[in-house]
Structures are given as structure tokens and as C-alpha cells.
């Protein structure tokens, strides 16, 4: 899931990156600006924050821990890093991932 997201991001494809998220109004994203609910609102925020390839840079994830909560839920903790010509960014994340219709999707993302 995260490999597919970073590959899409590194191609400048935010919509492709968003395929890893639950396409639902109940998706929850927590970042430095607060809580955002909904897939579309999360996509809109990404587009505002990263308006082009220069702002997006190259994304790399490092998994710190995957904790199985049940057959349906996983908690993923890791580090994200963006290498960019306009200045690098990095932080940490905790994801709640759920298996829905045979596919793992992020239903909650807390990134800092």
C-alpha cells in the first residue's frame, strides 16, 4: 500500500496517491492544521499544500512498526520524508488500515 502511494507521489500523481485512502466521507486525516474528514477534503488539502512536482518532491516511507489489531485492522507507524529542491520535509505517521472488500485502505492518518 505505501509502496504504491510513494510511487504515485513521486510521479506527481496525487490522485494515484489517494487510492491508498478509503474513499469515504468518514476518512480521518489529522495533521498540523487539525482534523480533516472525507476523502475529497483530504485530496483538496494535499493539492493546496503540494501544488506541483517541485512542492511534492520525492517521497520515502520508513516503516517502524506494523501492529495487527485484528484480521480486519492494522496499525502502521512510520516516518515520511520528502526530498525537495525547495527544502526537505520529514515527520512521522500513525495509520489505521482496514481491509475493505479484500483491499487494505487507510481509514485514519495522523501525520506530523
Write up what this structure looks like:
The chain is α+β, with helices and mostly antiparallel strands. The protein contains 4 helices and 6 strands, in the order H-H-E-E-H-H-E-E-E-E. A 6-stranded mixed β-sheet has the order 2-1-6-5-4-3, covered by helices on one side. It is globular and about 40 Å long.
Give the low-pLDDT segments. Answer: none
Q: How many DSSP E strands?
A: 6
Let me know the average pLDDT: 97
Q: Strand sequence of the main sheet, in spatial order?
A: 2-1-6-5-4-3
Protein structure class: alpha+beta
Condensed summary:
The protein is an alpha+beta fold and 112 residues long. It contains four helices and six strands.
Keywords summarizing the entry:
single chain, alpha+beta, 112 residues, 6 strands
Topology of this structure?
Layout: H1 2-10, H2 14-17, E1 28-31, E2 34-37, H3 39-49, H4 53-56, E3 58-68, E4 73-83, E5 89-100, E6 103-111
Parallel strand pairs: 1-6
Antiparallel strand pairs: 1-2, 3-4, 4-5, 5-6
Amino acid at each position: 500500500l505505501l509502496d504504491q502511494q510513494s510511487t504515485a507521489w513521486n510521479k506527481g500523481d496525487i490522485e494515484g496517491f489517494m487510492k491508498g485512502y478509503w474513499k469515504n466521507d468518514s476518512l480521518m486525516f489529522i495533521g498540523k492544521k487539525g482534523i480533516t474528514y472525507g476523502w475529497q477534503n483530504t485530496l483538496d488539502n494535499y493539492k493546496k499544500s503540494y501544488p506541483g512536482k517541485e512542492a511534492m518532491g520525492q517521497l520515502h516511507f520508513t516503516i517502524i512498526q506494523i501492529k495487527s489489531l485484528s484480521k480486519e485492522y492494522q496499525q502502521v507507524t512510520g516516518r515520511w520524508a520528502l526530498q525537495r529542491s525547495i527544502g526537505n520535509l520529514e515527520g512521522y505517521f500513525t495509520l489505521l488500515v482496514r481491509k475493505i472488500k479484500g483491499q487494505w485502505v487507510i481509514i485514519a492518518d495522523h501525520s506530523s
